[in-house]
# Entry
Amino acid sequence: MDKKQSTLFYCKGDVYVYPSGPNSEGIIGYLSIITDENNYTFLTWTPYYMVQSKDDSKNFFDLEKNNVYKVPKGTKSSCDLYAIRVPLSDIYSIQINVPPIGTSQIIASVKKGFSFHPFYFMSGAVFEFFDTIKKL
# Structure
């Protein structure tokens, strides 16, 4: 019997969340679009510190093989409040802001009427993210 694995459709590092606004200290992480072993597609943002290396345990992102394994829960901290895993079907809209000068960002709003903190793309790839969403 084959073990079901998750599929990674998109993963971008150097994506920041600024909990207290753009002038505060940011939390760096990965923004990903994954499909789990049950074929549910999720938008996730995971702080870097929550992703363990292959040496630490069996739970890790395997970017080379385009597979995502269970992301460890890690220790509780204030950064954990900003990690997300939301079904793509629950997302109502995604706003993209690409200013002529400054950092590109997206804001995801869910059907329940709230939005997540903006995700700031420090090294581009906002349109790559949008293209991936359109293909799903």
User: Anything to note?
Assistant: The beta strands are 6-17, 27-35, 41-47, 61-62, 67-68, 84-87, 91-97, 104-110, 119-121.
